[in-house]
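sorry for the late reply, my laptop died twice this morning and i had to redo everyting from scratch. anyway the thing you sent over, i finally got around to it. pasting the sequence first so we're on the same page, its 379 residues, then the predicted structure underneath. double check i copied it right bc i was rushing
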Amino acid sequence: MPDQRALKNPYKDYDGTQNLFDPSTPSFAGQDCTGYRAGAGIALLYLHLHGVFGESSYLQRALEYVSRSLSLKPARWVTLPVWRRGARGPSRAVVLPPPAARPGRPTSCINRSELSPPFYTEAPPRPAYILPDDCCTARAGFLYSLVFINQQFRPGEDPHPICDAALASGESLAKRNRTQDQSPLMYEWYQEQYVGAAHGLAGIYYFLMQPGFVAGQDRVQSLVKPSVDFVCQLKFPSGNYPPCVGDERDLLVHWCHGSPGVIYMLLQAYKVFGVKQYLEDALQSGEVLWQRGLLKKGYGLCHGAAGNAYGFLALYKVTREARHLYRACMFADWCMNYGKHGCRTPDTPFSLFEGMAGTIYFLADLLQPMRSKFPAFEV
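ok and here's the structure:
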């Protein structure tokens, strides 16, 4: 059945002869407080532009957006990647909290018409004493914020307590669901075992495999590695991954749900454990990206062409193979024709994760591909 979610890729694939920097090559240069939808994310864009181009005016613009965010209602929670009313801790020090979701419902990464219950449900608000572990709303995202602050100020904040809590949470749920023999760690978001980078297993395991995050390499080997292997077993024959454990529909090719976000977990597992199969799975995910990554949803980071293109850059940084950089450039060419492909207009068209700010962030990162990082996620 043809995929109805992606537009046909019009570009000729890399054959080893293209000169990426030939002038004839298509051009590729170029109210809440959260990082996902609003001002803090745009502040992160301007901070990034300052880092790339060195212009002080970008830093001033970042400060302006941070000031607007800090003028809103004070935070209710201390977890950084937040709800609409959530915390703004790192933005007080530098600029940003990472992505946010709306209170009482999942983000718009999956539309109700695309995934019927139980994989997408209007869940009740999470009790205050239960802290999730994913990248967009809790511990894994908090780890990114902690690393970001450490990189900016080198205060030496210890990630071990956060990782210890995440491991304990994952072990507890695996035992409660009786899945510990398959996966020693298990996580849920809104009563669903999501797989992807935004709310799921791949994003959490990516952080738990970062050097120095977990105290004791034996726990990484005994808890994280078999859990990563469990995710690998969920792979569809196409090379894509389901949005949730148990969902057999090969539909979503987004950073938030599907192979684009799982690539980061696979590449990190390859770096840590040296198992070549992880790299092979990541390369297969890259093929999925090339075939199905120009999304009708648009040009953004969370579920758009720019976010998918970061998967090519991740592969390029590990393999140094020119075809991955070429593919990222072709997706950038697509993004340079912003708004001309009949794609949907996002709810927040200028935001970092849904809109134009994220696309600009990617285009700027493409000028320094070996230093590129998916914003508010890659460490």
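The longest helix spans residues 160-176.
thats about all i looked at so far, will dig more tmrw
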